[in-house]
């Protein structure tokens, strides 16, 4: 039961986090928002580490353990946050759910986890659902939205690489310390990348001027929810189950994400998008049933 609660919790944090990020992007630039979110996450995790373990994992050896943070949150969210800005929160959340299928397939290749015919069939159904999801953007030749969809998908691939690397580490690592190290490396990588980009294009610069107090709170709160809490809960679950099994619960992310987008933003997915989303969620749900039977 504890594992199920943990899985539901990280799915909730990531699903609602996408919608909160979409709202925050209405006032805060993508680069500035990501830095605020990551910095909030790292400071929160440092505080928790100090209060619970009386130390902060900043030694060279501990930081080296956080190398997976280069893939996620750094690369995954640097790419993904621009995708979210160009597409809808519903699309971003539902496309992100392909992480379930991609993790199943790549975990079989790189981690030797069992891949059955049933999982392959469900993977095909899920990809069919994603095709329906972005069909509207392709038909309307909405290049901005289509680019956004593709950027979110690329960010999802980086997230899968993160899961594979973390699975190898978590068996012998403390989840809180590993999360803190990864988030610290992710923040450092993001600052360096955005700094280099700002030299080429000033629009990538970081500026916290003119951000209203409520959006400061939104950025900080979403950073703690989407980065610190979600990643800590995910690594805790990953310690006890295979990567492909932990990924099954990610199918619930679009449920929380789309529901929160409807409530908070008033977005209304099209019929095709709804069907595509249902296919993705249904395939992941039955994959979860396969692994527990």
Automatic annotation (TrEMBL):
<feature type="transmembrane region" description="Helical">
    <location>
        <begin position="31"/>
        <end position="51"/>
    </location>
</feature>
<dbReference type="InterPro" id="IPR050638">
    <property type="entry name" value="AA-Vitamin_Transporters"/>
</dbReference>
<feature type="transmembrane region" description="Helical">
    <location>
        <begin position="247"/>
        <end position="265"/>
    </location>
</feature>
<feature type="transmembrane region" description="Helical">
    <location>
        <begin position="90"/>
        <end position="110"/>
    </location>
</feature>
<keyword id="KW-1003">Cell membrane</keyword>
<dbReference type="InterPro" id="IPR000620">
    <property type="entry name" value="EamA_dom"/>
</dbReference>
<dbReference type="InterPro" id="IPR037185">
    <property type="entry name" value="EmrE-like"/>
</dbReference>
<keyword id="KW-1133">Transmembrane helix</keyword>
<feature type="transmembrane region" description="Helical">
    <location>
        <begin position="147"/>
        <end position="165"/>
    </location>
</feature>
<comment type="similarity">
    <text>Belongs to the EamA transporter family.</text>
</comment>
<protein>
    <submittedName>
        <fullName>DMT family transporter</fullName>
    </submittedName>
</protein>
<feature type="domain" description="EamA">
    <location>
        <begin position="147"/>
        <end position="286"/>
    </location>
</feature>
<keyword id="KW-0812">Transmembrane</keyword>
<feature type="transmembrane region" description="Helical">
    <location>
        <begin position="185"/>
        <end position="204"/>
    </location>
</feature>
<feature type="transmembrane region" description="Helical">
    <location>
        <begin position="63"/>
        <end position="84"/>
    </location>
</feature>
<feature type="transmembrane region" description="Helical">
    <location>
        <begin position="216"/>
        <end position="235"/>
    </location>
</feature>
<feature type="domain" description="EamA">
    <location>
        <begin position="4"/>
        <end position="134"/>
    </location>
</feature>
<feature type="transmembrane region" description="Helical">
    <location>
        <begin position="271"/>
        <end position="288"/>
    </location>
</feature>
<dbReference type="GO" id="GO:0005886">
    <property type="term" value="C:plasma membrane"/>
</dbReference>
<feature type="transmembrane region" description="Helical">
    <location>
        <begin position="7"/>
        <end position="25"/>
    </location>
</feature>
<keyword id="KW-0472">Membrane</keyword>
<dbReference type="Pfam" id="PF00892">
    <property type="entry name" value="EamA"/>
</dbReference>
């Amino acid at each position: 039961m504890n594992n199920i609660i943990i899985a539901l919790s990280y799915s909730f944090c990531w699903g609602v986090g996408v919608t909160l990020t979409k709202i925050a992007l209405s006032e805060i630039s993508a680069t500035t928002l990501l830095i605020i979110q990551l910095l909030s996450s790292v400071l929160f995790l440092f505080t928790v580490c100090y209060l619970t373990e009386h130390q902060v994992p900043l030694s060279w050896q501990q930081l080296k353990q956080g190398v997976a943070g280069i893939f996620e949150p750094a690369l995954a969210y640097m790419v993904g946050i621009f995708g979210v800005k160009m597409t809808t929160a519903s699309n971003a959340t539902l496309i992100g759910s392909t992480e379930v299928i991609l993790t199943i397939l790549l975990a079989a290749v790189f981690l030797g986890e069992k891949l059955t015919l049933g999982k392959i069939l469900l993977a095909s159904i899920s990809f069919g659902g994603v095709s329906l999801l972005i069909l509207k953007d392709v038909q309307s030749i909405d290049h901005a939205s289509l680019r956004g969809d593709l950027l979110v998908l690329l960010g999802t691939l980086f997230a899968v690489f993160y899961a594979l690397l973390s699975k190898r580490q978590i068996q012998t690592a403390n989840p809180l310390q590993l999360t803190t190290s990864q988030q610290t490396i992710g923040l450092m990588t993001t600052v360096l990348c955005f700094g280099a980009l700002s030299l080429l294009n000033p629009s990538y610069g970081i500026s916290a001027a003119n951000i209203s107090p409520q959006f400061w709170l939104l950025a900080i709160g979403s950073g703690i929810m989407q980065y610190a809490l979600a990643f800590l809960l995910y690594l805790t679950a990953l310690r006890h189950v295979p990567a492909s099994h932990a990924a099954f619960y990610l199918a619930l992310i679009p449920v929380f994400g789309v529901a929160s987008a409807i409530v908070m933003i008033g977005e209304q997915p099209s019929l095709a998008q709804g069907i595509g989303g249902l296919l993705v969620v249904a395939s992941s749900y039955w994959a979860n049933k396969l692994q527990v039977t």
